[in-house]
Design goal:
Strand content of chain A: under 5%
CATH architecture of chain B: Beta Barrel
Radius of gyration of chain A: 19 Å
Structural class of chain B: mainly beta
CATH topology of chain B: Porin
Oligomer: heterodimer
CATH topology of the domain at 40-146 in chain A: Cytochrome Bc1 Complex, Chain D, domain 2
Largest sheet of chain A: none
Largest interface: A-B, 54 and 61 residues
Distance between the termini of chain B: 49 Å
Distance between the termini of chain A: 56 Å
Strand order of the largest sheet of chain B: 1-2-3-4-5-6-7-8-9-10-11-12
Number of helices of chain B: 3
CATH class of the domain at 40-146 in chain A: Mainly Alpha
Strand content of chain B: over 45%
Shape of chain A: globular
Structural class of chain A: mainly alpha
Order of helices and strands of chain B: HEEEEEHEEEEEEEH
Helix content of chain A: 40-55%
Chain lengths: ~160, ~300
Amino acid sequence: MKAVAAALAVSISFLAASVVLAQSRSSGKSAVSATPKYDPVIYAELQKAPEKARNRTNPLQNDPDAVAAGAILFAQHCAECHSNSAEGSPKAPSLLVREVQTATPGALFWLLTNGVVRKKMPVWSKLPEPQRWQLVRYIKSLGGPAPAGDSPVPKP
Amino acid sequence: MASFCRLVLLGFFSFSLSWVFSPPPALAQERPYFVAYDHYLEEPGNLEIEYFSTYGTQRGGNNFLAFWTEFEYGATAWWTTEFYLDGQTTFHDSALFTGFRWENRLRLLEREHFVNPVLYVEYENKNGADKILKEGEGHDLESGFLVSNAEARKEHIHEVELKLILSSTFKGWNFTENTLAAKNLSNSPWEFGYALGASRPLALKASAKRCSFCPQNFIGGVEMYGGLGDRHNFGLHDTAHYLAPVLAWNLPSGWTLRISPGFGLNDNSHRFLMRWGVSREISGFGSMVSRLFRGHQ
C-alpha cells in the first residue's frame, strides 16, 4: 500500500511540475531565440569525413520531391535544436554558415550518420539512408555560401 | 479493485504529462521492440513517456495483465536514463504495484560502425509478483507464475541487470543482439538471457507530404528472447523462449503506437503474450526544466 501511495505521489508531483513547466514554456519562448551557438568544433567535424564519404554523391540529387520531404524531416527531427529556419539556437549551431553550405553532400551525410556524440549531436543513422539524403538536399537548398570569411553567425 | 483503480490513476497521471506539455511536433522514430534494444538512444534533452501492457495466458492458473510506465530521458547523446513503474492485475486474484526500475544505456563508441555496442545497466527494486516479462532470464518459467499475488508479493527482489547490446543497421534493416546477465543481490547466482531483433520501416524514403499513414511511419519486425539458465546450470535446460512479431506506428504528432503478439516456443513458456504500448516524445524537456530553475533571460 505504501508503495502504491509513493507511486501516486511521484505521478502527482510530475503532473504538478508539468503544469508549471508548461506555463514557463508558454511564457518563455523568447529565451530560445537567444544568440545562436557558433561551434567551430562541430563545423570542424565535417573536415573529418573520410575522403570516400566526402566524395559520395547524393543519389536523390535529381529527385524532385527530395527537398520537400527533407523539409518535413528537418521540422520533425532537427528544428528543435537548429531552429525552424536552421539559423541555429543556443543548443545547436547554424546550418546556414559557409562551413555547412560549402561542404559536400557526402560530408553532410557522413556527419548526420555519425553525429557528434561528444557535442550532443545525436547519431541519425536510425533514419534510413534515403531520408538522410533527403535531409542533405534540404540543408543544401537553404542558401548559397556567404561571402568568404563572413559567417552569418558571429563568433563569440 | 481499489489497487487496480490506483494503477489506472497512475497511468492517467503519467500520460497527462504529455498532454499538458503540448510540445512542438517531433516525429518519434522509435524502435518497435518491446524486449530487445537497438543502439539508438533518446535524443539529448528529450523525454519520452511510455505506457506498455502485456496480457499473458497462464496454464493451470489465472491469466494476467501486466503494465509499466517508462520515463526515458536523453541525458546526453551517449547516455539515456529511464525510470520504470511496474504493476499487474491477475484475473480472479488482485492488482498491485510491483516495483520500480532505473535503467541506463551508454553508447560505447563515438561513431557508427558495422556493429555498435551499447552497455545497459539497470537496478530493479520489485516484488515476486512482477509479471511484465520485460526480459527473459535464468530459469523464469510459466509455472513460476502460478503463485498467488498475496504470496508472491512477499518476495522482495533487488536486482542488478547488465546487458551488452550489439546492433547494426544495414540497408534500412536493424539487427540487434542483446546478451543479459542479472544478479539478485540477495545472494542468488548470476542469471543469463538473450534477446534478438530485426526490423525495418515499410518504406525507406520519406513522403513529400506530412502524413500519418505513409509507409515510412510503420516499422515492422520480429524479436525473439529467452533465458539461458544461471551460473550453476547454464544453457537451455528449464528455460522459456518467445518469438514475437512487432509493429510500431510513428505518428507525426509525436505519438508512437506499438503492438506485438508473442508466442511461447516451448512447454516452459506462456502460450501467448499480447503486448501493446503507446508513447509520446516531449522535445526539449531538459531545456524547459533548466529554464524553470534559471529563470527567463
